[in-house]
Amino acid sequence: MIAIASFGIGNILSLTNMVRYIGFDAVVADKPGDLLCATKIILPGVGAFDYGMKRLSDLGWIDVLNEVVMQRRVPVLGICLGMQLMCRSSQEGNSKGLGWIAADVVRFDGAGLRVPHMGWNSIEVSNPNPLISSNYGEQRFYFCHSYHTVCDDPSDILATARHGYDFTAAFSCNNIYGVQFHPEKSHRFGMSLIKKFLEL
Amino acid sequence: MLKNRVIPCLLLRNGGLVKTRKFSDAKYVGDPINAIRIFNEKEADELLVLDITASKENREPDYSLIERFAGECFMPLCYGGGIRSPEQARKLFSLGVEKICLQTAVLENASLITEISREFGCQSVVVSVDVKKSWLGRYGLYASSTGKILPLPWMDYVQRSVAAGAGEVVLNSVDRDGLMQGMDIELIRIASSSLSVPLIALGGAGSLDDIKAAVISGASAVAAGSFFVFHGPHRAVLITYPSYNELETILNSSI
């Protein structure tokens, strides 16, 4: 069962639309318990880091997520803020993140850089991986964010994009996958990525 | 590198798609769902849908129609028209809209931007600014709900909106709307040189060269209505969107 975690801060409908279009069935998990029988989890998210962590904690998601993702090793895909919540901390707020991957979230920093980084950008695959093929020609995705993740271990970086400088566009560590862009809003490029994740 | 977005701007009136000239003379151009399907197939960068009578008629957004739009869009969707409260914004986001575009309500109550961006992030709040030249030739802030130029310096108003939490600005030239004779490059230059957030230029694009000129003047994105819905000298309705290669060729050469 594919579960999309719905803790009130993501664009759930766009994701379900795409998952269904690809030909899979997704369950919108409104409460943490719905994740217990999931075989794939998508963790979406839009908005501020602290607000996202507060929602996860207030509604009792954190323990269940830790159990399913860190102990039972169910594949999970974090999207945008969902990816950032997987990290240890964020410059955007004071809350601790889920801490599933050795990474932190920092603000885009550069003179004359327009922030948010909003729009379509192409990505470069850094490490061979099952989600993003490296021989597909130019792949572009829709981004919309002011903060980005920084991994301790460069081998966790799947792909980078450039906005002033190269930053992590996708990472993974074991069963944990995160993408900074919005595959559900990236036409066939995003469709391919989501399909590959669901077929893992 | 971040690409400059090229965004079809669709105007809604009573559930149908229309296109205006200088903000009046609205001509019916078809069914919005059909148009959105075509833009989706052609892999448009993003869509901007504005209900141009919701605020005037003090109406709520047409939620069921917007939900159908979102279901057709595998690209970002920004909706504007009739949004006056965070509750309405919340409902729109839950239907699958990425961004909401605020205008009329913000002229009366700028704190609405702050309230919505605090909850959903500034990237999801777009402020739309209509600028019209006065008879003296000065740019002024235009209130489409009353048809008057407001006694407010327009750029101050843009800056205040960004400071309040708007993550993007749609700058529309009323005088160029629907004419397809080029965009107001001077206006775009003034705004982009003092903005730190992305600027979406709107009004007047009639060719890819017009779009390119706006990008060279600093627009992060260019939106257009007529350019994507009319074809030929007699303005026959034909929904089109340039191919990715065409856009890459024109926008990435000599910038």
Quick take:
The complex is a heterodimer of chains A (200) and B (255). Chain A is an alpha/beta fold and 200 residues long.
Strand proportion of chain B, as a percent range, falls in: 25-35%
- Span between termini of chain A: 13 Å
Largest sheet of chain A: 9 strands, mixed
Unreliable spans of chain B: none
Number of DSSP E strands of chain B:
14
Give me the CATH fold name of chain A. Rossmann fold
Number of domain units of chain A: 1
**CATH class placement of chain A:** Alpha Beta
Chain pair with largest interface: A-B, 38 and 36 residues
CATH superfamily of chain B: Aldolase class I
Strand-pairing-aware structural class of chain B: alpha/beta
Protein topology:
The complex is a heterodimer of chains A (200) and B (255).
Chain A: E1 2-5, H1 12-22, E2 26-29, E3 40-43, H2 49-58, H3 61-71, E4 76-79, H4 81-85, E5 103-107, E6 117-125, E7 140-145, E8 147-151, E9 157-163, E10 165-173, E11 176-179, H5 187-198
Parallel strand pairs in A: 1-2, 1-3, 3-4, 4-11
Antiparallel strand pairs in A: 5-8, 6-7, 6-9, 9-10, 10-11
Chain B: E1 5-13, E2 16-21, E3 24-30, H1 32-41, E4 47-51, H2 63-72, E5 77-80, H3 86-94, E6 99-102, H4 104-108, H5 111-120, E7 125-133, E8 139-143, E9 148-150, H6 154-164, E10 168-173, H7 185-193, E11 199-202, H8 208-216, E12 221-224, H9 226-229, E13 230-231, E14 236-237, H10 244-252
Parallel strand pairs in B: 1-4, 1-12, 4-5, 5-6, 6-7, 7-10, 10-11, 11-12
Antiparallel strand pairs in B: 1-2, 2-3, 7-8, 8-9, 13-14
Write up this protein.
- The complex is a heterodimer of chains A (200) and B (255).
- Chain A has 200 residues and is an alpha/beta fold.
- Chain A is built from five helices and eleven strands; from the N terminus they run βαββααβαβββββββα.
- Chain A has one domain: 3-Layer(aba) Sandwich (Rossmann fold), CATH 3.40.50.
- In chain A, the strands form two sheets. Chain A has a nine-stranded mixed beta sheet with strand order 2-1-3-4-11-10-9-6-7. Chain A has a two-stranded antiparallel ribbon with strand order 5-8.
- The relative contact order of chain A is 0.17.
- The mean pLDDT of chain A is 94.
- Chain B is an alpha/beta fold.
- Chain B has one domain (5-252): TIM Barrel (Alpha-Beta Barrel), CATH 3.20.20.70.
- Chain B is built from ten helices and 14 strands.
- Chain B has helices at 32-41, 63-72, 86-94, 104-108, 111-120, 154-164, 185-193, 208-216, 226-229, 244-252, and strands at residues 5-13, 16-21, 24-30, 47-51, 77-80, 99-102, 125-133, 139-143, 148-150, 168-173, 199-202, 221-224, 230-231, 236-237.
- In chain B, strands 1-4-5-6-7-10-11-12 form an eight-stranded parallel barrel, surrounded by seven helices. Chain B has a two-stranded antiparallel ribbon with strand order 13-14.
- Chain B is globular.
- Chain B starts with a strand and ends with a helix.
- Classes of the chains: A alpha/beta (200), B alpha/beta (255).
- Chains A and B meet through helix 1, strand 6, strand 7 and helix 5 of A and helix 2 and helix 5 of B.
